[in-house]
Automatic annotation (TrEMBL):
Protein name, per record: Gag1-like clamp domain-containing protein
Region (Disordered): 1-22
Record domain Gag1-like clamp: where: 17-104
InterPro entries: Gag1-like_clamp
Source organism: Forsythia ovata
Organism domain of life: Eukaryota
Length: 104
């Protein structure tokens, strides 16, 4: 039995020597660093590039003429002279649908 008690005391001594006080442990756990957010921001910065290096875009004339009708667009299989930005196509379709009462 004495041997058991001696071992127990030795273990407790080692634990107390190797443990850090609760207030020191609290100091190290108060700071949270979101490594995932940092990595995401770095990836985003690489993807979008340096904003300060971008040139100002001049607004372009619309590719779809405002006099063009829905039938004009659908009546031909010929491609447009250049790609139509999605926002322009959406504006065009919404205007047509509103005129026809299909979009409220």
């Amino acid at each position: 039995m004495e041997r058991n008690g001696g071992t127990s005391g030795c273990i407790e001594k080692r634990i107390s020597e190797n443990s850090t006080p609760a207030n020191e442990l609290k100091k190290t756990t108060d700071v949270f660093i979101n490594h995932a957010a940092i990595a995401w921001q770095e990836s985003r910065r690489k993807w979008i590039g340096d904003i300060s290096q971008r040139s100002e875009r001049m607004p372009k004339d619309p590719i779809i003429s405002w006099s063009m009708t829905y039938e004009d667009v659908l009546s031909t299989n010929d491609p447009f002279s250049e790609p139509i930005p999605l926002s322009e196509m959406v504006d065009f379709l919404v205007d047509i649908w509103q005129d026809e009462g299909l979009f409220d």
